[in-house]
Each structure stands twice: as C-alpha cells, then as structure tokens.
Amino acid sequence: MPRFDISTIGEGQIRLTCHKGDRLVTARELRMTAACSEANVSGLLSQLGRSASWASVMPRGELGERVLDEFRSVGVHLGNIVRTERGRVALYFMEPGEYPMPAKVIYDRLYTPFRDAGIEDFDWESMLDARLVFVTGITAALTENTARVVGYFVDQAAERGIDVALDGERPVGWVCTRMHPEDSMGEVYILAVDPPWQRRGIGRRLIERAESRTRGLGMRMLMVETGGDPGHAPARATYEAAGFERWPVARYFKDLSGRSDAAQARRPSARTDVP
Questions:
Q1: Which of 115, 150, 165, 258 has the lowest tally of Cβ within 10 angstroms?
Q2: Which of 189, 202, 156, 181 is nearest to 5 (CA)?
Q3: Domain 1-160 has CATH 2.40.50.140
Q4: Which uninterrupted H or E stretch holds 216?
Q5: Mind listing the pLDDT tens digit for each residue in 101-131?
Q6: Is the model more confident about 76 or about 273?
C-alpha cells in the first residue's frame, strides 16, 4: 500500500499581498503567507483526509521555517524537503486588484536553491511511494535543472500507473489506476477534473487512458467505484457513458467503536471523484 495519496514537488515561496485596491508602489502594509501551487494542492488534500507529501529545496533560517510551518500546520508531510545552508527564500508580490484595476503579480525568485536542484538531491523512493504525482509546468519552466527534475519525476511515476492531464502549464485533471493481477482486473482509484474543465470530455479521455494502460498490462476488466447518492450522479453518468455497467453489489458497514448510541455511528464517507 503506497504511503502517500499524493506526492508533489515545487518551490516554496513567501507571498506578500497588499490590501485590495492598493498598489504595491504605494502600499504601506503587506500580508505575509506561504505559497507554492504544488504545496497548496497537498495542503488541501491533507485537510480532506488524504496523506500528502511535498518536496522542495528550502534554505535554513526563519523565513524558510515560516513557509514550512504553514504547510506543516495543515498536515502536509515534509520529510522530502531538502534543507540547505545556501540561497534565499523565493518571494512574490501580489496586487489583488479591484475593478477596473486588474490583479498583478511580481516574482522575485533569483538565486534560490530550488533553481539549482538536481535529480540526485531528492529521495525518489519516498517521493514515488504514492498513488498520485502532481506537477506543474510553471515549476518545470523555472530552469533547465527543474525541468529535468520534473521530467524525471513524471517518467518514474508513469511506470507506476499514474497519469496527469495538463492544460499548458496547468493540470486540469488526473487519473490514477492500480492493478489487481490476482483478479485480472484494473481499478480507477482516483479520477478528478478541475471544475471549470468538467463536461468537456476530459474525464472520458482520462478513462480511455486508464483502459489502454490496463489492457496493455494484460488485465481483462476495469473497475471503478463511486457513490450512489445524488451528488455522485455526474460521476455515474460519466462512467456509464464510457461503457461501465453497474453491478448489484451491496456493501454493509458495522460500527465497532463500542458506543451504545447507534444514532451516533458515522458511516464511512464515499470516495470523492469528480469526472
């Protein structure tokens, strides 16, 4: 069983944001928060109960600790963070904007240790002990070094049955499949599509990719589970349109907590999937 549900890599930064409607050139106050697209994804999924890892290279010191503490506080695993004595923490400055003034971002990411990161710097066995790998084109485009690191991460993950859908620099969905050779069956374990991209055929194409991978590994059947409640109706429609048939399987749950009040028993929640 993989250690992490999701494993990510990206540069930790400090975001300095002025008040809405202010300009950076005139602002007297800036709000400090930690930032990193990949770490944000890990943090969100961690708060939803998933085990999530984030890898990066961060300099030692108070500012580096400030970034790590924020993601640590929401449960992100930081054991894959590489610490170094050199370099500085990346910054970016944010003007939220207010109509008619658009939002504005200014990056300050030169001379940070992550830019020089190499494949040999990371613990790949730990980072790849995951069901899902999440990367962004922004990180890959940072330097030639980060491009090689991200490319290696993706290539190694692909050998473990993980697929990622990308919209230019931004992932719009992913599918994770796992195999059950003893039953000659593959399973779509995670299928997710970014809400703005739903109902555009992304989920269907990801399912087709999962089918191709499962068939190529010699499996005879592909299975997926979802909820039977109204909230999962779009997911069920996607699967049925892709040719999946619903089997009459009953699942029973028994509360083993020892509480006498049966009304307090909580049923396990259905796995979230958003095709």
A1: 258
A2: 189
A3: no
A4: helix 202-216
A5: 788 899 999 999 999 999 999 999 999 999 8
A6: 76
